[in-house]
Specification:
alpha/beta, 31-stranded mixed sheet, eleven-stranded parallel sheet, 10 helices, about 15% helix
């Protein structure tokens, strides 16, 4: 029995050993045993996932065969063979069709060892993020950014306690962003206690505004936090806890906090990157530091010295930055590489200590109010690559030390008030320079900056962008550009360059995106040989270029040749040769001929300006619908030509037209009915033509947004339609010099744009407006002009009382009509009135006393009426003392006309005496004193000089000797000058 037991034990031991051996053989041979079941399950799960996805570009075509570890985007563990990583991110190379869509299958849950999931940059067409993703408990990396999901973030994501990296940036469908269903809270993130990277940029977190900082403070390992554009409205003044000690990157831009910079931001000891751009932050940057000692304290703690990137641009920050720069530059080893404070209200001078930020690579201080010059110490910033100081109030000279920065790539110091001379010394070592912009404010009266670079100098750099504006570069075209054959943008605007453009420039073989040589005195012809990239811009306006119009590259989208001397016709095939044109300005040249029909082929054209030329003939049918698509024209100016005939009906297809100028031509016919379709017109100027018939009533209904209606100097007849009164945005109404009759509609007082502060969008356009008795051209301030001109018609009836409601009216001209009745008593309500012309009517009655309260009035004409009574005096009327203002009103009396009012000659007895007598007595006394002082002065002056010479003989001799010497010196100078002139002329 013992033997049998022993034998049995031996057999059992042998069996166990055999099992172990078999297990080892299986494990080492790679035969599918235990793991085969797991991998098979995962392969099936992946195939189910593939089945649910839309894959238009067949990116998952590799998902075939037994080994799923070789499939695209799938990564398996080298140790266990389980699927651990799934990367289905759409790349740019995959194109639009390369984005996955469809449904994410629950089979993902069978990938039990998955720790990495990336579905970003796809298009799931507004489906919701699957809640079951929160059950993938091994996930350490999750990226669903820009995948076009919708709805709220599932709180189940908070179950992913092992998650280290979470990126949900712009996960949403943009169309559903403002929907209440997309508003998220942040309670769920408290479970992500392993999280180091959190990016919720663009997610709607408005519900979490009050507690977002407290929520993220619960994540002790968090090192990167991105909450840009999350609808957060509150930036707490203090930290709820100190758990954010690991935070190195903080991005809170575009949230509209509308607060000052809180102190805790600069107390994050490991902070390296801070981005608070476009957050409506106000106050001073130093508000983050309660006193100067806290700045030093933070420096010692290293809280500021570790910062590499600080972005506080596009806020409302004010004050100076000197103290902050002093502290940052005082660090033992300042880490700051990028400082962006642009688009604020910061001021003061730039401190010299800025030159101690030795690691600085980009300095962006543009669009502020900095003054003074660029510190010379800027030459110490040997790593600087970007310097942007444009649009400040800086002045002085540009330091030569700028030329020491051989790493510099981009320099923009435009729109300041520089002076002095800039030479090649400023640029000599900038071997990496690609972008250079230097200009002065164009509103400065003189060009105080001179660019004086030797014509023999060869730059060490190859520029791509060059902008020199409002400074002196000329008189010659800069020869140092002759080796700049990589330019894509060249701007030499208002630089006093004259003469012709040298031939070498045309031979540089450039492919330009923008060419701006405007506002110079350049002359000659423009060849058609220049190359341009797609959607390029060409501005050659305000020069003396001549010859025929150049037909430039078919890639040009904007062509401005305004104010030159081009002549001849507009090329008949311009529409075919330059099909990409969106802006065309040929105004103020000497162009002749007719408008080419091919302009109608410019389907992308938005602005067409050909005013002030000598074009003739009829306007062709340019604007027919193109395959049912309306024309895109917004601005059309054909004014001041010799165009004739009727306006083509195709103008009705210009549904986007806002400005239409056709004035001063020979156009005829009735008011163009096709304009009824132009329902968003803002300016309509048909003045100076031969249009006839009635002014249509439909203007008031179909053009509700009209700002300016100018129909002067035509042949319109009939009455003024009362429907014009509904044009609530109208601020210039000019119907002068027509044959209009009937009464002035009393409802014109309802034109509310003339009764309140200007709220219309500021616009720039040129228009002739009759003000102050003369016609002036308005451009930059046209939007401020409020005017009604109904003069030179046959209007009858009275001046409507309602016009006095227009308290912001600047010009009212009703002259040369048949108006009767009285001037409205409330005329004094027109407090902004500058011009009032009621002359050549049949108005009667007294001049209202309230007219004296028109303090802005500087042009008044009431002549040729039947007004009566005393002319009011006081205030502004005292300055308007020209008698012609009141000419041919026989019953008027009082100053400034000679007719006296009854009682003016009487001398009333007053206890204190007559004021006029007192004035005359006072004047008589003053005249006596004047003559006495003048006589005394003459006697003292004459005898003080002549008397001394008569009495003092030595002084008399010295005086006449001086006169004699001066006479001899003058004779000698004249003789020498004549002799020199004779030698030059060989006489």
């Amino acid at each position: 029995m013992v033997y049998q037991f022993s034998n049995s034990g031996t057999n059992m031991a042998t069996t166990i050993a055999s099992v172990h051996l078999l297990f080892l053989v299986i494990m080492t041979s790679g035969l599918p045993f235990h793991k085969a079941t797991g991998i098979e399950t995962e392969k099936v799960a992946l195939l189910k996932l593939k089945q649910g996805l839309l894959d238009p570009s067949h990116r998952l075509s590799s998902w075939v065969g037994d080994d799923c570890c070789k499939w695209r985007g799938v990564v398996c563990s080298n140790r266990t063979g389980h699927v651990i990583k799934l990367n289905l991110r759409s790349l740019e190379d995959d194109g639009i069709d390369g984005k996955f869509g469809g449904e994410i299958s629950h089979s993902l849950l069978d990938l039990k060892y998955l720790n990495y999931l990336d579905l970003s940059m796809n298009n799931f067409e507004g489906t919701k993020i699957p809640k079951f993703i929160g059950s993938l408990e091994r996930l350490r990396y999750l990226n669903l950014s820009a995948a076009n999901f919708s709805g709220r973030l599932p709180p189940q994501l908070g179950n992913l306690s092992r998650l280290i990296y979470l990126d949900l940036k712009e996960y949403f469908d943009l169309n559903a962003y403002s929907d209440e269903s997309s508003q998220n809270d942040l309670q769920w993130i408290s479970g992500l206690y392993s999280l180091r990277h959190l990016n919720l940029e663009g997610a709607n977190l408005s519900r979490a505004s009050a507690y977002w900082l407290q929520a993220v403070s619960m994540l002790p390992s968090l090192s990167e936090l991105h909450l840009s554009s999350c609808g957060l409205s509150l930036l707490p003044p203090s930290l709820p806890s100190s758990n954010l000690t690991s935070l190195s990157v903080l991005v809170l831009s575009n949230n509209g906090f509308n607060s000052t910079i809180p102190q805790w931001l600069f107390q994050l000891r490991n902070l390296v990157h801070l981005d608070l751009r476009f957050d409506e932050l106000g106050g001073s940057i130093l508000d983050a530091f309660p006193n100067t000692t806290s700045l030093e304290k933070l420096k010692k703690m290293g809280s500021l010295c570790k910062l590499k990137t600080v972005i506080l641009s596009e806020n409302d920050l004010n004050g100076e930055i000197t103290e902050l720069i002093d502290v940052l530059s005082g660090c033992n080893n300042s880490s700051l590489e990028h400082l962006n404070l642009g688009f604020n209200k910061l001021g003061g001078v730039l401190p010299n200590s800025i030159g101690n930020l030795y690691n600085l690579q980009s300095l962006l201080l543009w669009e502020n109010s900095f003054v003074g010059s660029i510190p010379i110490s800027v030459g110490n910033l040997s790593n600087l690559k970007e310097l942007y100081l444009s649009n400040n109030q800086m002045s002085g000279t540009i330091p030569e030390t700028l030329g020491q920065l051989n790493e510099l790539v981009s320099v923009d110091v435009s729109e300041n008030s520089w002076e002095g001379v800039l030479t090649e010394s400023h640029l000599s070592n900038l071997k990496n320079l690609k972008d250079l912009a230097i200009s002065n404010n164009p509103l400065l009266p003189n060009q105080t900056l001179v660019i004086n670079i030797s014509s023999e100098w060869i730059p060490p750099f190859k520029l791509k962008y060059l902008e020199l504006r409002s400074c002196q570069v000329g008189p010659k075209f800069p020869a140092w550009l002759r080796n700049q054959n990589e330019l894509n943008t060249l701007i030499l605007r208002d630089t006093r360059i004259s003469g012709t453009i040298p031939d070498w420039f045309w031979k540089l073989d450039l492919e330009l995106h923008q060419l701006d040589l405007g506002s110079n005195q350049l002359s000659g012809r423009i060849p058609n040989s220049l190359k341009f990239s797609s959607q390029s811009l060409v501005y050659l306006n305000r020069n003396n270029f001549s010859g025929s119009l150049p037909l430039l590259s078919s890639n040009v989208s904007s062509l401005n040749l305004r104010i030159n001397s081009f002549s001849g016709p507009i090329p008949w095939d311009i529409g075919e040769r330059m099909p990409m044109l969106m802006e065309l300005d040929l105004s103020q040249n000497f162009l002749t001929g007719t408008l080419p029909v091919s302009i109608g082929n410019l389907y992308g054209l938005m602005t067409l300006y050909v005013s002030n030329n000598y074009l003739s003939g009829e306007i062709p049918e340019l604007w027919e619908l193109w395959d049912g698509v309306p024309n895109l024209l917004v601005h059309v100016d054909l004014s001041n030509n010799n165009l004739s005939g009727e306006l083509p009906t195709s103008v009705g297809s210009l549904r986007l037209l806002t400005f239409l100028f056709l004035s001063n031509n020979h156009l005829s016919g009735e008011f163009p009915s096709a304009l009824q379709n132009c329902t968003i017109l803002r300016i309509l100027d048909l003045g100076g033509n031969r249009f006839s018939g009635n002014i249509p009533a439909w203007i008031g209904q179909t053009m509700p947004s009209l700002w300016i209606l100018r129909l002067r100097t035509n042949l319109f007849n009939g009455s003024i339609p009362s429907q014009l009164c509904s044009l609530s945005s109208l601020h210039i109404l000019d119907l002068a010099q027509n044959n209009l009759s009937g009464s002035i509609p009393s409802c014109l007082g309802n034109l509310s744009a003339m009764a309140s502060e200007i709220e219309i969008f500021r616009f720039e356009s040129t228009l002739m407006v009759l003000t102050k008795g003369r016609e002036d051209s308005y451009r930059n301030i046209l939007y401020l002009v409020n005017s009604i001109d109904l003069s030179n018609n046959a209007l009858s009836g009275g001046v409507p009382e309602g016009l006095t409601n227009l308290s912001f009216l600047g010009t009212l001209n009703l002259s040369i009509n048949h108006l009767t009745g009285k001037i409205p008593d409330k005329i004094g309500s027109l407090q902004r009135l500058e011009t009032l012309d009621l002359s050549r009517n049949q108005l009667s009655g007294p001049i209202p006393a309230g007219m004296a309260s028109l303090t802005f009035l500087n042009h008044l004409n009431l002549s040729h009426n039947n007004l009566s009574g005393r002319i009011p005096t006081g205030n502004q009327l005292q300055a308007l003392d020209d008698p012609s203002i009141y000419r041919d009103n026989p019953a008027l009396c009082g100053r400034p006309i000679t007719a006296k009012c009854p009682g003016d000659d009487e001398t009333p007895n007053r206890p204190g005496g007559d004021d006029q007598d007192e004035d005359e007595d006072g004047a008589e006394v003053e005249m006596k004193w004047f003559y006495m002082s003048m006589g005394t002065g003459f006697v003292v002056g004459f005898w003080g000089v002549c008397g001394t010479l008569l009495i003092k003989e030595s002084w008399r001799h010295a005086y006449f000797r001086l006169v004699y010497d001066i006479k001899e010196w003058l004779l000698l100078v004249i003789q020498l000058t004549l002799a020199r002139l004779q030698r030059k002329l060989n006489l």
